[in-house]
Write a structure and sequence with these properties.
The complex is a heterodimer of chains A (about 475) and B (about 700). Chain A has about 475 residues and is α+β, with helices and mostly antiparallel strands. Chain A is about 40% helix and about 20% strand. In chain A, helix 2 (about 90-110) packs across helix 6 (about 205-220) and helix 5 packs antiparallel against helix 11 (about 345-360). Helix content of chain B is about 35%, strand content about 25%. The chains are: A alpha+beta (about 475), B alpha+beta (about 700). Chain A: It comes from Selaginella moellendorffii.
Chain lengths: ~475, ~700
């Protein structure tokens, strides 16, 4: 696999092409190969722009490789090169979602690449950030030596989306009311987000920010991944700078960039493993944003929200399965906010108990007989069968679904308003259905309904009525 | 001496004159001028028959009676001629047909008003003395005579002209207290008269209550204190029965509550004075400090044992300083005069001047002087007599705490008070018919009280309590009587404009719609607070109301979404709509479409909501407008709903310059509309299709 981030506006003069490259993976890839990938990609983009100025090249399929193009910001491209595994080609949309997710989290922590470039035309800062962040992200996908990229088995899942739980509106209202109480102390409008296990309960952020923050939280903050004691955290004797050094030593492309200048830049490393731990008072802390001098406390984490492009400080509180994220405009108010949260701790506890009572365990979203995914495109949320249930599907069904989704992706790119319904019978006698309408998509695989199309369609209609508010009814 | 009194009165009058502005004066309880007057020459005194709500004035040879329960005071008293002789006590029977007069401490005379026959009943033994008597509606007996040796339960045999003794409950009695409201008689015995025993003579039968001892502090000089009938009051508050006993030395008021099988002490309230008397107005306990002439207000259902508000003097409202100086009755304005007697529950008799005052509460003044919003609202929500006023005050208090931008948790708990009061009434009124309810918690004797409203008060009461469960048969009647009775305060308050139906106006509870109209919308119009705070408050209210399972009017959600949109919190709107934190409705859908001009996602959500709430017409119009023709046609076919004329679909399809689409629409029209193929429209669009497809 190769991953490249480049800015097509940079390095316009001959001999300076390398200046375009903001990031390249693998880190030890020789410079000529880096340049050739960037050159090829740029060429394709320029060529395809002639026919389609608004959305140029998206995907290039070669004999053994697939190139996925993602323009994360105007003229800033992410190119992912994946090796093809036999005949089964994972739809490119799945990879693009992965890139979208990667960029989303990056932007959340470091801000827009273009604005960073404006402030620092040499691009040290952006490169530092990318070289600290992306390898951590890729590291998360590594299991041993193999890299877990999306495959056809992930056809009932989607990167860059938020998993939500079906919760009674009254509990959600209670959650809203609790957040209102927490936010009311300052009079300054704040943002907040609530997670329960790895599901989103509530968010006031924009969908894109919600997605990024949610994905990050699931990676690093939810109870199952957080260190439970401060002792553990402090023992780790945070090694951020040494990590950075090792990164930098492998990245010496231009002689004028000195290693010492990198040292001066403090780059946060939010995806560092065990970045967060829980203090005794229930708050989550992290050294990923550095420490106030040697032996000092952790620097308050900050994020860049798309809304207003402002730096916002983050305060995280966790009670059992409930994770509460509050975003406040100034670091000074964090202490006040913490007091407010502690004052309302009993209400948080009650909310957690109610959610736990309603939650049906890790199979809460399972609907017997169905393997499904309902995707709300505008909110970027999905409700889907739990992965362990999806795993019971036959490879064949998933391959068909992968294909169907690929087709639908293309259809979506072509028109603004998709209104499609597909129902396919696979060779293994399963029904694969896809419905897309008005910003909603529903994919269902029925392996037991080996009956007629009518029966399968009825079953999906029933599902649609019960779980999708009848949005995707068959006509 | 006369001039001295007059001087004093002048001062009093001047002082009162300054209060004349009415409700602006600081006082929580007031008596309304003019009082009820009964200046009969040769009056032997004034008594009040609490069973019939009659003011009785005996003279030599006649008894004048006024009904004081109706709104307009009848000018002419009913006069009953009696034979001459002393009158120690008078009571009409419950049907007002028989008049009973205590002639001496051994003899009662009964006069039948219809045939003017009379007979006399005397004590059986010479050693006993009659302490008093009362009429009851209990099935076993008609009249109960209390003597020093116990209770005599008699039934009346009019034909034979005598009383028939039904039962005798032997017990030595020093004095007794009875109120018709509670049907309860308390008998005092013992050397200090501190042992109290009671019977309830209700329509369900006679209930004997366990004995209990009054408790009072022993004086330091070991002089024995003897409890007198002035120290003991029977009070009915929120349908519960209490014995209130003053303890002059400790300056306390001890409270005992009667249950069917027990009398349980409920603690004590400080009275801050030795010489006190007690009234109950609209279930609020008023402790009059006679010497300092101030009133303390206690609400027995409040959790605290402190007065609702600071002690303030009783106010005489709208007293015109006698501009007729020749009238000697001017000194009738002296409060807590020597002739004042406090009669259960809220009446003051002025023996000196022959007046009857009715005490009333000034809710506005109470509201103005209380700072604890939650308990004040709880207090207002329990008011029955001036329910509309209480409701209005509740709303305005809420408005002001929101506009003052009190802390959200404070506002939230205030909202909780309102929703739980409303929720309670709603739940209890949905259980069974009103009649059924009345019998289950009967004898809400405080007049003009709504049974539904009353349930709130009773919610906390124990099942085993001696409520009026035993008074079933009489309850309905009592209720009806009550309805006709003290209407005065209620009618007065209902004249206050409050855009509500009559039924709701009689309860102080604030429905979600009223919250919207009288609180949220008003604040929004006034732009008094920033949107985000009002949103936070509304979310608190929604949480509270939904927890009480109240039905929320769509307007509330519309306002919430509108406020959020004003702050451009589109993402949040999207979330709360998708999570159904706001319930879908057509009004909300239209609002979302409105906002959709700024945020296209919301437009989509609004369109979808139209479908969800089955607003077919608007939904199809939307689809037409957005050019989603096939979707619209499929929707028509599937839901079999009335559609806009198919020509509009055809026109829209033709305008799109997409002949496949036009063909589909045309095909649909042919299939769905019978004989469409023979219309001019068909020809028209068919030719367009032919032309386009051949291009």
């Amino acid at each position: 696999m190769q991953l490249c981030v480049f800015d097509s506006r940079r390095g316009q003069q001959e001999g300076h092409e390398l200046d375009k490259v903001l990031f390249f993976y693998p880190l030890d890839c020789p410079l000529p190969s880096q340049l050739s990938l960037v050159g090829l990609s740029e060429g394709l983009i320029t060529f395809s722009r002639i026919f389609s100025p608004d959305s140029p090249c998206e995907f290039m399929e070669a004999e053994r490789h697939g190139h996925i193009f993602y323009e994360c910001e105007p003229d800033i491209w992410m190119i992912l090169v994946v090796e093809k595994d036999g005949d089964q080609v994972t739809r490119d949309g799945a990879y693009r979602s992965l890139l979208r997710e990667l960029y989303g989290i990056f932007r959340l922590f470091y801000g827009k690449i273009s604005s960073r470039l404006e402030n620092n035309p040499v691009a040290d800062v952006v490169r530092n950030c990318l070289y600290v962040f992306v390898p951590d992200y890729i590291g998360d996908m590594m299991a041993g030596k193999t890299l877990w990229l999306p495959t056809i088995s992930d056809s009932l899942a989607e990167h860059a989306t938020v998993r939500i739980l079906s919760v009674e509106p009254d509990i959600l209202l209670e959650c809203q009311s609790l957040l209102g109480l927490l936010e009311s102390w300052s009079g300054v409008p704040q943002q907040s987000m609530v997670l329960f296990h790895n599901y989103l309960i509530s968010s006031t952020l924009l969908p894109a920010d919600t997605m990024a923050m949610y994905t990050y939280a699931v990676l690093r903050m939810i109870p199952s991944v957080v260190s439970q004691s401060f002792a553990q955290g402090s023992k780790r004797s945070y090694t951020r700078h040494s990590v950075l050094n090792s990164v930098v030593s492998t990245f010496v492309t231009e002689p004028k960039r000195s290693v010492s200048s990198l040292h001066e830049q403090t780059v946060s490393q939010p995806l560092h493993h065990d970045a967060w731990w829980q203090d005794v008072d229930g708050f989550l802390s992290s050294f990923a944003w550095g420490a106030d001098g040697p032996g000092g406390g952790a620097v308050i984490p900050s994020v860049w929200l798309q809304e207003g492009e402002k730096m916002t400080y983050l305060c995280v509180y966790q009670h059992r399965a409930l994770t509460l994220l509050m975003f406040i405009p100034s670091a000074e108010s964090v202490a006040l906010l913490r007091k407010q949260i502690i004052d309302q701790a009993d209400k948080i506890q009650v909310l957690e108990e109610k959610l736990t009572k309603q939650w049906g365990g890790s199979n809460a979203m399972h609907v017997p007989g169905y393997r499904y995914m309902h995707h709300d495109l505008s909110r970027r949320t999905i409700k889907a069968s739990p992965p362990n249930k999806v795993a019971t599907l036959a490879k064949e069904s998933l391959a068909v679904l992968n294909k169907v989704r690929g087709e639908l992706d293309k259809e979506k790119n072509r028109s603004d308003h998709t209104d499609k319904e597909l129902c396919l019978r696979t060779k293994n006698n399963a029904w694969v259905s896809a419905r897309a309408r008005a910003g909603h998509e529903l994919y269902v695989v029925l392996e037991k309904a080996s009956d007629t199309l009518l029966v399968a369609s009825d079953a999906i209609d029933k599902f649609n009525k019960r779980h999708c508010e009848g949005r995707l009814s068959s006509d | 001496m006369c001039s001295g009194v007059n001087n004093g009165l002048c001062e009093a009058r001047m002082a009162l004159g300054s209060y004349d502005s009415g409700s602006g004066a600081m006082s929580h309880a007031y008596i309304q001028y003019p009082p009820f007057r009964c200046d009969i020459p040769g009056a032997l005194g004034v008594t009040y028959d609490d069973a019939n709500k009659l003011l009785l004035v005996p003279t030599l040879g006649e008894i004048y009676s006024w009904s004081v329960s109706s709104d307009t005071l009848p000018s002419d008293p009913v006069v009953v001629k009696i034979s001459q002789g002393p009158v120690l006590g008078v009571r009409f029977s419950l049907d007002c047909k028989i008049l009973a007069i205590l002639r001496s401490n051994t003899e009662i005379e009964f006069i039948n008003r219809e045939d003017c026959n009379s007979f006399k009943q005397s004590c059986k033994s010479s050693s006993e003395r009659i302490l008093g008597f009362f009429w009851t509606d209990c099935p076993d007996c008609d009249v109960v005579i209390v003597t020093t040796s116990g209770l005599e339960l008699n039934s009346l045999c009019l034909g034979k002209g005598k009383l028939k003794l039904v039962e005798k409950k032997k017990q030595s009695v020093s004095w007794f207290v009875y109120t018709h409201e509670s049907r309860l008689v308390l008998l005092a015995s013992g050397t200090q008269c501190k042992t109290l025993s009671g019977y309830q003579f209700s329509a369900g039968g006679i209930v004997r209550l366990p004995k209990f001892d009054a408790n009072f502090t022993k004086s330091e000089n070991h002089r024995t204190f003897v409890l007198s009938s002035e120290n003991v009051f029977i009070a009915t508050m929120y349908g519960r029965l209490y014995c209130l006993q003053t303890d002059p030395l400790a300056k306390m008021l001890h409270i005992h509550r009667f249950y069917r099988d027990a009398v349980i002490s409920q603690g004590s309230l400080p009275t801050y004075a030795s010489n006190v008397s007690v009234s109950v107005v609209d279930n609020v306990l008023l402790v009059h400090q006679i010497d300092s002439k101030v009133v303390l207000l206690y609400d027995i259902l409040a959790n605290t044992k402190v007065p609702i508000s600071a002690p303030l003097p009783l106010l005489l409202r709208q007293y015109k300083p006698a501009n007729s100086p020749e009238k000697p009755g001017a000194d009738e304005s002296s409060l807590y005069g020597e002739g004042w007697v406090f009669v259960n529950p809220d009446v003051i008799l002025d023996h000196t001047h022959g007046l009857l005052w009715k005490i009333q509460l000034d809710l506005e003044a109470v509201a103005a002087s209380s700072s604890d919003v939650s308990s004040l609202l709880a207090f207002l929500q329990r008011r029955k007599c001036e329910a509309a006023k209480a409701k209005q005050l509740s709303c305005s208090i809420l408005r002001s705490i929101i506009m003052e931008r009190r802390s959200l948790s404070q506002v939230s708990s205030a909202l909780d008070v309102l929703t739980s009061a409303f929720g309670h009434v709603k739940r209890s009124s949905s259980k069974g018919t009103p009649i059924g309810r009345m019998s289950s918690m009967p004898l809400i004797l405080t007049p003009g009280m709504q049974p539904a409203a009353f349930a709130t008060a009773l919610a906390i009461s124990n099942a085993a309590e001696l409520s009026y469960g035993s008074l079933r048969a009489s309850s309905a009647r009592a209720f009806i009587n009550g309805e006709q009775e003290i209407r005065e305060p209620e009618q007065e308050s209902s004249s206050i404009r409050f855009s509500e139906t009559e039924n709701q106006a009689a309860s102080p509870h604030v429905s979600p719609q009223e919250m919207l109209d009288n609180v949220f919308a008003v604040i929004d119009e006034g732009m008094a607070v920033e949107n985000s705070f009002l949103v936070a408050v509304m979310v608190q209210y929604l949480r509270s109301a939904r927890a009480e399972q109240l039905t929320i009017p769509p307007g509330l959600y519309v306002l919430l979404v509108r406020l959020l949109a004003r702050d451009k919190c589109y993402a949040r709107i999207q979330h709360i709509v998708a999570d159904q934190v706001v319930e879908p409705s057509k009004a909300l859908a239209l609002e979302l479409l409105d906002i959709g001009a700024q945020c296209s996602q919301l437009e989509e959500i609004g369109t979808d909501m139209l479908r969800q709430v089955h607003a077919h017409k608007d939904y199809l119009e939307r689809l037409l407008h957005k050019g989603r023709l096939l979707e619209g046609l499929r929707y028509i076919r599937q839901n079999k709903v009335e559609s806009p004329p198919c020509v509009r679909f055809l026109e829209a399809a033709a305008a799109k310059d997409n002949f496949v689409l036009l063909a589909s629409v045309l095909r649909f029209c042919c299939d769905f509309v019978s004989t469409f193929e023979h219309t001019a429209e068909f020809e028209k669009f068919y030719s367009i299709l032919k032309r386009d497809s051949s291009k």
